[in-house]
Amino acid sequence: MLLLAAAFVVGFVLLLYMVSPLISPKPLKLPGAHVVVTGGSSGIGKCIAIECYKQGAFITLIARDENKLLQTKKEIEKYSINDKQVVLCISVDVSKDYEQVENVLKQAQEKLGPVDLLVNCAGTSVTGKFEAIEVNSFERLMAVNYLGSVYPSRAVISTMKERRMGRIVFVSSQAGQLGLFGYTAYSPTKFALRGLAEALQMEVKPYNIYVTVAYPPDTDTPGFAEESKTKPLETKLISETSSVCQAEQVARVIVKDAIQGNFNSSVGSDGYMLSILTSGMSPVTSITEGLQQVVCMGIFRIIGLFYLGSFDSIVRRCMMQREKSESTDKTE
Ligand SMILES: NC(=O)C1=CN([C@@H]2O[C@H](COP(=O)(O)OP(=O)(O)OC[C@H]3O[C@@H](n4cnc5c(N)ncnc54)[C@H](OP(=O)(O)O)[C@@H]3O)[C@@H](O)[C@H]2O)C=CC1
Ligand SMILES: CCCCCCCCCCCCCCCC(=O)[C@@H](N)CO
Q: What does the record list as coiled-coil region(s) (predicted)?
């Protein structure tokens, strides 16, 4: 009887694997492909551009600061694998004016051909207590992190649909999977990308276009160094739960997942747990992934509750410490 049940389970899993090519896309071929990276002049975006260039892609870098763009172009060109490869730089603010973004992408496509892979990596962060964050920071972060990903994607999607191919990556964050102390302005912009990605993926899958959402942990970049200058102690202590990653490592994982057309892209063991735990109604790209979610979700929720308990106690400890030092200040 037991043997029969085991045989049944094994047969079922085998059957699932047989149909799995139906849901797994064909890998994207990077040699000769046109890859556009917004935020490509620094940090994670720069490393993504280098990773794609090393694999033979043509690159368009998008960011505002022209000097930084040119410097990065030179740095990337060191990794060329053939003499046809090109790195194109475009200086534009991805969050200001849709027409402008559409125009520059049209120019890039005239020069390097239709976009095969768009990586939306331009982004920025502001941390602090809710009441201490300037109201216009909430607006600015939503504009850069969210609309700054909508505009380039909206500008390339029609051509991708016509060609019946393409890949779009949204760089969210672990802070786009759970809300944490200090991230009231930042987290919602990263959660928003997930909603956009899910809706868009359902629309464009019949056109053989695949969407990836990446959820990196804290990563050693110029942007991270800037953020750390004003980060509340609570945010620092909570974030230390997971260690700081190198941008090269994060970029390698994102490029691999984009090539494979995986909807979800995470780094490290807590990244893995968070992605399973928050998989909700997001699409799966392989049977294995679906099975892992079904089997692990409950146990990861239990582990997650312990994490949440420790985060709450960090916040309470910091508050008590602050009140104590304020009252000693007064008595002095
Ligand atoms: N580092 C980290 O710990 C993590 C980062 N992330 C996300 O990854 C992405 C990259 O982060 P990171 O590498 O640290 O960032 P950096 O600050 O190092 O680089 C940001 C890049 O985006 C560009 N950029 C910023 N604003 C705009 C804009 N309005 N229009 C066009 N380009 C813009 C910058 O160039 P310029 O200023 O010249 O325009 C630069 O090239 C961000 O979306 C971030 O939220 C997610 C998780 C962790
Ligand atoms: C089973 C559940 C496991 C839970 C583990 C939770 C770990 C939480 C750590 C969160 C770190 C926040 C990263 C934000 C990075 C970011 O986007 C900014 N640095 C951008 O500059």
A: 62-111
